[in-house]
């Protein structure tokens, strides 16, 4: 039989409280148990050991010799467990683990996360970027930046950025063409990541039927940043979220040839387990991020 099944931890906890308080009634008040429940747990422990631990007298209980030998060791053991848990909780409280899409991490966190640490210097940040959606029940994570509809069971979710999309290219490539008079003219250029479903949705919204995107390489780079870099180098047209590339647009590295902006109902969200919504480091990060996003929207 496994030790974890042999060791009556609940009964030991009740015994420790009863020995320290010198009373079953006071132990029950401390632990939120009835006197009957305390007596039951003590009896279980005595049966397990095979020796009485208390002498029961009217309105009084006292430790037996065996109980006196056991009590300080049990008290010390629970103290060590509490110290160990406290150390783990303190270490966990100092580290905020964020899972994020690669694009959001590179384009937004890289420019803003330092401000969070200046405001909360005692919270260390571990940022993990991935194309997969983190499973809070299986992976170490405090919060996540997800794209979707925000309808994840068991999670609190706050919309932080619209995930619109539209074709973008370098102004130099635009000038080098004979002119992009209508959306179908984009198909005369190299389409970057033509397998991205955003392309078909955008062309459908633009009224272009059968764009024949299969004739272009179906690259998958895993982040909009690479697609944007190829577009800025003048090597094709990328389908991007303009919200990530305000600085590149302002600097003349990217431009939007048509005013058709699409959204498939999936945006960027801050998500975390509903059960952990009051954890101080999560509250601090949530409040900071929502405030920063509000400032970004005002600046647009």
UniProtKB/TrEMBL annotation:
GO biological process: DNA-templated transcription
Location of the HTH lysR-type domain: 7-64
Gene3D superfamilies associated with the record: Periplasmic binding protein-like II, Winged helix-like DNA-binding domain superfamily/Winged helix DNA-binding domain
Keyword presence, Phosphoprotein: no
Transmembrane segments: none
InterPro entries attached to this UniProt entry: LysR-type_TF_proteobact-type, LysR_HTH_N, LysR_subst-bd, WH-like_DNA-bd_sf, WH_DNA-bd_sf
Gene Ontology terms, MF aspect: DNA-binding transcription factor activity; sequence-specific DNA binding
Family annotation (CDD domains): PBP2_GcdR_TrpI_HvrB_AmpR_like
Keyword Oxidoreductase annotated: no
Coiled coil: none
One Pfam family this sequence matches: LysR_substrate
Keywords: DNA-binding, Transcription, Transcription regulation
Similarity annotation: Belongs to the LysR transcriptional regulatory family.
Name of the molecule in the record: LysR family transcriptional regulator
Taxonomic classification: Bacteria, Pseudomonadati, Pseudomonadota, Alphaproteobacteria, Hyphomicrobiales
